[in-house]
Amino acid sequence: MEAPAGNSNVIDMASRGQGPAHPQVFAEVRGISLRKLGGMLAEVLDRSDDALFDFVQRTKSSNEQQDFFDAMRELRRRRGEVEQRYRDFLAESFAALERRRPLKVNLHAAEGADQGLSLVSADDLEEQLAAEQLAALADRRHAEALRQLELRMAQAVGLPLIDPQSLSLGPTTICGAFRAGLQGLELTIKARLVLYKLFERELIDSLGGLVHDCNQRLHQAGILPAVAPARSVPRRDDGIVRETVGDSRDSGSSAYSPQSTRSSSRQLGAGISSGGSEHPPETIDSIFASVRDLCQAVLEAQRMASGAAAGRGQSADAAPSAPRVTLGERHALSALQSLQNNIPESLLRAVDDPHVSLSSLLKQELLKQAERMQLSEPGAGLVEQDEQALFLVGLLFDVLLSQRSYERPVRQQFVRLTVPYARAAMLDQHLFALKTHPARQLLNSLAEACDGNRGESAAERDMLNRVGGVVDKLVADFNEDIAVFSELESDFRDFLDSHRKRVELAEKRAAEAQKGRERLDEARAMAQMELATLMGARSAPPVLEMFLGRYWTHHLAVVFLREGIEAERYRQARQAGEKLWLALLACEAGKDVPPTLRDELTPVLASSGVTGPGAAEVLDAVEWVLLAVRLGRHEAASSHPLPPAMQNLAPLDNSNEEPAPAPSAPGDVAVATAKAEQAEAAEAEGEDVEPPYAEEDVERIKALNLGAWVEFIGENEESIPAKLSWISPISSRLLFVTRRGMRHCAASPQELATLIKQGKLHLRIGDTAFEYAMSQVLGRLREAVPETKQAV
To answer: Where are the annotated segments for Disordered (predicted)?
Structure first.
């Protein structure tokens, strides 16, 4: 833990020894918290034996079985130490908060990790990710209550505010305490992850009640007025619907309260777009108002065009047309339910025909089915709200089907989703307005699992099979109960979270490898600059040039990577090369070779793995060449053969400093790199050359945040989704990874802007599949409005 820089007034008060502003209530909250949090850990340790033994029975590997048995024995033997470290961590956090010097917990820093070049071990990185993910999940599940508690605790101790990572009752501090408790135990990573899973269940289940109790006690003491909690999505467990009161902003447990009554949502999200007390502003889709208005304009224009065409087809003395007949709301839902159980072939054919509009097909099939079921008269239409909902669902899935990053089987699954989503939109059109709507979140999770997934690995195939299972269950079970979406999304999200964890691990590895490559390039460039500074335009006998250009520059690069340019060892390494060069100049002037030169050069050879007889051969050759130069035998010095150690140079052993070679960049990126470099070279020479990119695109790329998604367009116009995973502080290059967390490319903003100009890169507008699709729907509607007006 580290103490953050705080407000100067707070520090002054702390230095005078002032305690909390409300000492009695603070003490009560601390007592409640330490008691309940201690009980939480005790429950985890009580259940650890059974959980670990279950894994012993599941695994067939004798080694893994022994590991789990060893973990059970270690936990029994050192349980007291675990609980003591856990309690001490929490007590220290409360004590620091009481002193008004809150301690900030950093889960990202590995315990005992040095800050050198060495990579974090895979086990440490996986445990770190488990702790970070658990803290983030708990924070999302109880976000609003925790924010209230932060404000109340800040007022209770007399601080202006408390950072979430410094809140003693916050998920970050609790997870840090759990991690500290396990520190020093001889447990394999698999056993540790079992314990983290047990702790996750306890934390998620118990934290809400604990935070609520503390908020209530602080409120009773007159600290801040009560704030109405957000209502969370009802969870369906064991067939029972439980409507819980919580403070969730989680991606799967949202502030949306599904009320499946038609009366609550007849006006396509009316009253939502402007925000209201029922739905926090951050849950509202900002572009929905524009989509709704344009949708209404397009449909109205289409109806007017249809009416005008019908009027032109009638004779002048024909009777006026009868009033428009519409299909009743319940009848429309009944017809859709029938279609849901038997998806029409016309919809399935839309998978392979990009010119087919699902909006038109859905409406046609619905009206045909209503006629077949004798629910409507021929020529009947839909009520305005149902028509809008159907139209938007069709456009939404049209966009999803048009994306080339989804394989054909995935697009078939999306087509099967159109009918249940049409029913959901008719039942509750908040689906388009609220980001937290369970149907919307389910579609986001399914799209994330399928985007770019070609089933190339067992994990990807398992993901696709689970998507198919979710679609099957939704088609079979959805019957006007929106909570089904919440139940399916919650179950699928649990599976997706474990997949994300593996992906995050791969992402961090890719970023560390890219960072290592760039640091190595920087070190080598620094070493070459030192060599050029030393030798200038002069040449030296081949033996000395080989020594300086190969061994000395490598030695400089290694020391630069390990200790930096300001280190004493780097100064010594640089002096070794300088002394060799000065020795050459001295010998040219007829002076003797310095007696300590051999000792100065030995560490340089050791950096390249040249030791023993091989090092002696190289140093003997260096001394012989210097002696020949002193005697004026320059030709002999220049023609002296390289010693065997120099003739048979093996690749340098950079296993500790140099990562594996970077995969070759995609062809389009390589071409863009060449063009950008040519433009920069021409500009440096003063030539007036138009750059191959637009400056506004460069600025757009520089404005991207970590985690932003883009689309690279590969061969055959194939769309490749990629995520911005890391930005180099050395070269400002942006590292993009695939859905599997593997490196796709690393390129500069200018190179990426060149790809945008070539149409080989698209920046996504929305973070999720639904938001991105809605932005595309908005574009299509804007294009359709002028066309429909012209048709009228």
So the answer is: 235-283, 637-694
Could you give the CA distance from residue 710 to residue 743 in angstroms, rounded to a whole number?
Answer: 14
Query: Around 208, how many Cα atoms within 13 Å sit in the side-chain half-sphere?
Result: 20
Q: What is the pLDDT of residue 84?
A: 92
**667-767 CATH, one of 3.40.50.10580, 3.40.50.300, 3.30.497.10, 2.30.30.140:** 2.30.30.140
- In sequence order, the 6+-apart residues with CB closer than 8 A to the CB of 636 are 628
What are the structure tokens assigned to 645, written together?
A: 């150690």
Q: How far apart (Å, rounded) are the C-alpha atoms in residues 477 and 485?
A: 10
Neighbours of 184 (CB within 10 A): 13
**Residues 441 and 482 sit within 8 Å (Cβ to Cβ):** no
In this structure, what token pair is assigned to residue 547? 């020594």
CA–CA gap between residue 766 and residue 291 (Å, rounded): 15
First to last CA, the chain: 68
Are 350 and 401 in contact by the 8 Å Cβ rule? The answer is yes
Per-residue pLDDT of 227-258, as tens digits, reads 444 333 333 333 323 333 333 333 333 445 44
pLDDT of residue 178: 92
Query: Model confidence at 775, in pLDDT bands (50, 70, 90)?
Result: confident
Contacting residues for 345 by C-beta, under 8 A, at least 6 apart: none
Q: Quote the pLDDT of residue 249.
A: 33
Residue 163's nearest CA partner among 2, 1, 18, 4 is: 4
Q: Quick check: 280 and 255 in contact, CB under 8 A?
A: yes
Q: What mean pLDDT comes out for the span 585-592?
A: 87
CA atoms within 13 A on the CB side of 428: 21
Measured CA to CA, the distance from residue 696 to residue 716 in angstroms comes to 28
Task: Dump the DSSP string for 102-119.
Answer: PPBP-TTSPTT--SSSSP
What is the rounded distance in angstroms from the CA atom of residue 529 to the CA atom of residue 684? 20
Within 465-622, strands assigned E span none
Handedness of CA 88, 90, 96, 101 (dihedral sign): positive
Q: State the virtual CA torsion across 377, 379, 382, 388 in degrees, nearest 10.
A: 160
Amino acid at 448: E
Token pair for 111: 């315990």
- Rounded distance between C-alpha atoms, residue 787 and residue 792, angstroms: 9
User: Residues 89-114: pLDDT tens digits?
Assistant: 999 999 998 888 888 888 765 544 44
Q: Of how many residues is the chain composed?
A: 792
- Residue 688, pLDDT score: 59
Six token digits for residue 118? 């060495």
Judge whether 669 and 755 are in contact, CB under 8 Å. yes
Cβ density class 121-152: b for 16+ within 10 Å, e for less: eeeebbbbbbbbbbbebbbbbbbbbbbbbbbb
d(CA 674, CA 577): 35
Starting at the earlier edge strand, list the strands of the sheet with 709-713.
Answer: 743-747, 734-737, 719-727, 709-713, 761-763
Q: Where are the domains of the chain?
A: 8-110+119-220, 286-310+326-508, 538-647, 667-767
- Which pLDDT score is estimated for 689? 64
Q: Report how far residue 514's alpha carbon sits from residue 557's, in angstroms, rounded to the nearest whole number.
A: 17
DSSP of 416-433: HHHHHHHHHHHH-THHHH
Q: What is the DSSP string of 439-508?
A: HHHHHHHHHHHHTT----SHHHHHHHHHHHHHHHHHHHH-SS-THHHHHHHHHHHHHHHHHHHHHHHHHH
Helices (DSSP H) in 119-259: which residue ranges? Answer: 122-141, 143-157, 171-182, 189-220
Using left for φ > 0, alpha for ψ between -120 and 50, and beta otherwise, residue 321 falls in beta
Verdict on whether the full-model pTM lies above 0.85:
no
Specify whether the CB–CB gap between 272 and 756 falls below 8 A. no
Distance CA(495)–CA(490), nearest Å, equals 9
